[in-house]
Amino acid sequence: MMKIIFLGTSASKPTSERNPSSVALQYNNGEFMLFDCGEGTQRQMIKKVSPMKISKIFITHLHADHIIGLVGLVQSMKLNGRTQLLEIFVPKDTIEYMKTLFSIPYFSADFDIHVIGVFEEKIDFDGYWIRPFPVSHGVPAIGYVFGVNDSRGKFNKKLCDELGIKGEMFALLEKNGKIEIGGREISIKEVTGKTKKGKKIVYTGDTEKIEVFPEEAYHCDVLIHESTFVSQEDKKETYHSTVKEACEVAKLLSAKKLVLTHISQRYETKEVADESKKYCENAIVAEDFLEITL
Ligand SMILES: [Zn+2]
Ligand SMILES: [Zn+2]
User: Fold this and answer.
1) Phi, psi (5° rounding) for residue 90?
2) What is the CA(293)–ligand 1 centre distance, in A?
3) Which residues bind Zn(2+) 1 (predicted)?
């Protein structure tokens, strides 16, 4: 099970309703990950996300409204006695810039922080994976596809009994994918139910509309797309997207659900929602503390 928690949904600066960008993801009711960490993120986390359970932070780009919350968050982790490694993923070529964020005077963490530069390579973790991809924002910037591995179905108990699979044989079957009983080889697929497809989330960070995505992004369960502007007139030549453009990307990717975020302070939520309804039935506008369970 996965839970997405929107901690900050505002573009550039906080408003009375919205904090700057950050999205938390809880994997399997345990470990948390953050996507971006704007100013004030740790306050938004109170009662929702434990800083001590954050294993990884995925940064899309180094504009201040996406990273300024990191220093305070790391400071709090230190005060709470954290010893566990923290991994921070950033667009490649920005590793040194990210490190300067932690070089302010009289500041240190008592635990290891690894800053890892990424661009387009898929990275596998225990049970899930991440696939960064380049976006277009005028500075080095990436989006991320987060995916959970497919999981196999449950053992068919009746069939296992009939074939004589018992006790430690199950562990062997899991480990090797097959087992031999009475001269017959039995594969794990024969005795388990249908494979369960893992869920996928795409998070664009800040970007103007792009049309090239990695294949992993298609048919995602949730597309979290920035939609800073409602009208093209407001957008002008900025490297951001309009609601209409975000809806077009959702169609391109055949996303099951579109969540619009990074909303300019000039708009009321209703204005953004009304605009999205013109182009996309499955779109919602994120509010701070919106939770989506997958
Ligand atoms: Zn931004
Ligand atoms: Zn930006």
Assistant:
1) -135, 160
2) 25
3) 61, 63, 137, 206
From 65, 112, 161, 288, the catalytic residue: 65
SS3 assignment, position 132: strand
Residue-wise pLDDT tens digits, 40-97: 999 999 999 999 999 999 999 999 999 999 999 999 999 999 999 999 999 999 999 9
* Ligand 2 centre distance from Cα of residue 261 (Å): 13
Q: Which residues are annotated as a binding site for Zn(2+)?
A: 61, 63, 65-66, 137, 206, 262
Q: Which pLDDT belongs to residue 174?
A: 87
Structure confidence by residue, pLDDT tens digits, 239-279: 999 999 999 999 999 999 999 999 999 999 999 999 999 99
> What spacing in Å lies between the alpha carbon of 23 and ligand 1's midpoint?
13
Class of the CATH domain delimited by 2-151+199-293: alpha beta
Q: Which residue has the tokens 């053992």?
A: 155
CA distance 96 to 98: 5
Paired tokens of 277 = 């309804």
Domain ranges of the chain: 2-151+199-293, 157-191
What distance in Å separates the CA atoms of residue 32 and residue 202, rounded to the nearest whole number?
17
**Structural tokens at position 292:** 């989506």
Q: 63: CA distance to ligand 2 center in Å?
A: 5
Question: What residues form the annotated binding site?
Answer: 61, 63, 65-66, 137, 206, 262
